[in-house]
Amino acid sequence: MAPMVNRVAKAMTRTLVYRSIRSWPTRYQHAGFTLLEILLVLAILAMASVIVVPNLGGLDARTFSAQVREASNLLNYARRVAVVSGQPATASFSIGTATDEDQAGRPRSYVGGWRGEGVALSYRDSANQEIRVEEKLDITFFPEGGSTGGTLQLQFDDRIASIAVDPFSGRVTAEFLEDQ
Prior knowledge:
single chain; alpha+beta; five-stranded antiparallel beta sheet; three-stranded mixed beta sheet; 8 strands
């Protein structure tokens, strides 16, 4: 019975192979995309561009927000380091690109630095005198919780943010101001 099953299987296999080769439709060999397929792809691309293009315009604003958060986090970190270590801790703020002189001029209590490129930075000290930061500004926190205090004002195009440092408690608060 097994030889008969093998013959039947071989006969069916030949038939299937023969039919599959012969059944290739010749009308699809020269086919291209239909108008409906092309319109569908164009519609998908149009929807994707509507979603992506408006988000590219706000990229600078998100970058500025990230810079403000980074500066605020650096100040909070310096405050924590001063309280925990029992030593003064200094956070440095500078504008432009780094130089070798920046490395040598750091105070001993330096915990980190913030560098803003394209951001205008001004500082109002606790005596309410405003200073435009051209190169570098250091804010020091003390172990008792106090600091040199003051308010940093960051400006990028028409966006303005303010980071206030309380001179007595060292508390750091950041806020975005309305366009002026």
